[in-house]
Design a protein that fits this description.
The protein is built from one helix and eleven strands, in the order H-E-E-E-E-E-E-E-E-E-E-E. With 135 residues, it is of the alpha+beta class. The strands form two sheets. Strands 7-6-3-2-8-9-11 form a seven-stranded antiparallel beta sheet, with no helix packed on it.
Amino acid sequence: MKNHIKWLGIIVLAAVIGLSFAACGGNEPEKTISITGIPTEYLTATEYHFYVADDKIVAMGNGQLSGSIVTFDLYIAKETSENYYSQTNDRWTGKGTFRVGFSIKIGENWKNGNAQAISITDAVTTIQFSKFQVN
């Protein structure tokens, strides 16, 4: 009887540990994206907003300009109403191939662009600005 209880305890402990690892979602790093080669006309922008999407927006971030590079940390996006999203305080750790888009405010005007099929797997993904289609 003591052996059965001991084995039952070991099985329960193993199950709890296994479920804990599964709930953590692995050890994927928090993601950051750097956009390099920003054209001169965009260097005076006052706001840089970015998103990562598959069929819906999954992550968002606000960029910081340094030289001709904009870098932004990605945070989990939450749909607040149909097709409207807000950024949470939780860092995004996803990976895969996504569409990356931006809105950049220059003076009173906004420029938008997106790049298709960007692979995001490492902690930092670098994308050349020339990959974006701007409208």
